[in-house]
Design a protein that fits this description.
The protein is of the alpha/beta class and 486 residues long. The protein has three domains: 164 residues, Alpha-D-Glucose-1,6-Bisphosphate, Chain A, domain 3, CATH 3.40.120.10; 211 residues, Alpha-D-Glucose-1,6-Bisphosphate, Chain A, domain 3, CATH 3.40.120.10; 87 residues, Alpha-D-phosphohexomutase, C-terminal domain (TATA-Binding Protein). Helix content is 36%, strand content 21%. Its cofactor is Mg(2+).
């Protein structure tokens, strides 16, 4: 094969049978195995998880076989396993890392290959760069450090650690251990006393059974749907956004439930519907959670957010004299801050979060349980808690616009962005310009606009946060006019 395999913000993804073929998956597995062996940690083994997509089991078998051929033992997760649970299994086994086969919230024809290193958080760019270099060497037939072909033996063909079976693969379900760990983080007793009624939509994905088990055992009255395997995801995307959760909204309001909780295809992102049927955006939920951690749990510590995520977190951190760490888009940078900066919360506007005491990987199951804990402990809806936050810290209005261009337009606008430094925007002076990831302009009253280009499409994303709906529209239109993006 000749085309370049590259790792984006969360791994390599491709269309099944076109790009995501068995040959390519084996190639990437060999490149990851070479990286692990070069780091001299191969004897610790690798965890393999997968979601509910087409041919998931067969792809997982192929990956296991390639690792075993490089002398690396495998912990194969039984059945579909969420990304955060697969990551947690690294800690359970003190493994060298994990491979998660998932395309997350992408359309049904896609699958993906995500490498999670020994930290149990997303791989940082220096790791994925090394894997990409290994792929290129293997494609070209060049020597690749850490790679050597071991003659096949047994089921997978591997030399294995003594405590593992001679087939080279231990079938393992980290379900119970993950649930025991979650019980140390979530106040299940308070949930039990609150008598919550919750509707759950795992969107046919790998998260089926997790929220149901934990909340059911905590005494919540549950209604669950879309809780069987469907590689076509009911003909839609397994992405829990306001647009895709209409049925969950209807079931919550019709059943007079306290909450509706949804998970994406690999359960690392969340969707939350409040008792009134309102979709709670990640930019609303992250401040809710930080407020809860600060005021109810009494935690103190910094918060990490991406450059595209709400500054309401900044206002809270300022009041409690805590640092805030801004990172490029991509949870790998959030995970790094959770590990290195002792943050009590890290999150992004696209629906990923984790907290102190958990793994530095985004976890939709954790998010849903924290939502239930909040409703139980505060004794009121998330919307009502939000109103209290707005009264104390002010309300902000966030939105992302996706604007399609031609490839030629994209090139021209990218060139223009290099020197894009307007002195005013939306009728206010620009007081700061941040080029951490795209171009972010902050105006005098704290409102801001971020312009980011898609890495794969002729597309620009304009993120805006303002103090009123009117200001939000003014800022959006002004940026579009200045960059000729109308």
């Amino acid at each position: 094969m000749s085309h370049k395999i590259s790792f984006g913000t969360d791994g390599w993804r491709g269309i099944i049978a076109k790009d995501f073929t068995f040959d390519n998956v084996r190639l990437v597995a060999r490149a990851v195995a070479a990286y692990i062996n070069e780091e001299a940690i191969g004897e610790r083994g690798i965890v393999i998880g997968r979601d509910n997509r087409f041919l998931a089991e067969e792809f997982a078998e192929a990956v296991a076989e390639e690792f075993n051929k490089q002398g690396i033992p495998v912990y194969m997760c039984c059945g579909a396993t969420p990304t955060p649970v697969t990551a947690y299994a690294i800690k359970l086994h003190q493994a060298a890392g994990a491979v998660m086969l998932t395309a997350s919230h992408n359309p049904p024809p896609y699958n993906g290959f995500k490498f999670i290193p020994e930290t149990a958080g997303p791989a940082l760019p220096h790791i994925t760069k090394k894997i990409e270099e290994n792929i290129a060497k293997l494609q070209a037939g060049e020597p690749c450090e850490g790679y050597s072909l071991i003659p096949a033996e047994g089921r997978y063909g591997a030399l294995v650690a003594e405590e593992k079976p001679t087939t080279g693969c231990t079938m393992h379900s980290p379900f119970e251990e993950y649930i025991e760990h979650i019980a140390t983080i979530i106040d299940l007793d308070t949930i039990r006393q609150a008598g919550l009624k919750i509707v759950i939509d795992p969107m046919f994905g790998a998260g089926i059974g997790y929220l149901e088990h934990i909340l059911g055992n905590a005494g919540a009255e549950l209604e669950v749907f879309h809780n069987h395997r469907d590689p076509l995801f009911g003909g839609t995307l397994p992405e829990p956004t306001g647009k895709s959760l209409e049925e969950l909204k209807q079931r919550v309001t019709a059943g007079k439930a306290h909450l509706g909780l949804a998970l994406d295809g690999d359960a690392d992102r969340f969707g939350i519907i409040d008792a009134n049927g309102e979709y709670i955006t990640p930019n609303q939920f992250l401040p809710l959670l930080y407020y809860h951690l600060l005021t109810v749990k009494g935690w103190r510590g910094p918060v990490a957010r991406t450059v595209a995520t709400t500054h309401l977190l900044d206002r809270m951190a300022a009041k409690y004299n805590q640092p805030i760490y801004e990172s490029p888009v991509g949870f790998k940078y959030i995970g790094q801050n959770l590990l290195e900066k002792d943050c009590i919360l890290g999150g992004e506007e696209s629906g990923g979060l984790s907290i102190k005491g958990h793994i530095p990987e985004k976890d939709g199951i954790l998010a849903g349980l924290l939502a239930a804990e909040m409703v139980a402990q505060h004794g009121k809806s998330l919307t009502a808690i939000l109103e209290s936050i707005y009264q104390e810290f002010g309300r902000l209005f966030s939105e992302r616009l996706d604007i399609h261009t031609t490839p030629q337009q994209k090139t021209a606008i990218l060139e223009q962005l290099k020197d894009f430094s307007p002195t005013e925007l939306g009728g206010q002076p620009v007081i700061d310009k941040i080029t951490l990831d795209g171009v972010k302009l902050i105006v005098a009253d704290g409102a801001w606009v971020l312009i980011r280009a898609s890495g794969t499409e002729p597309l620009f994303r304009i993120y805006t946060e303002a103090n009123s709906l009117e200001q939000k529209v003014r800022l959006q239109q002004d940026v579009k006019n200045k960059l000729d993006l109308n």
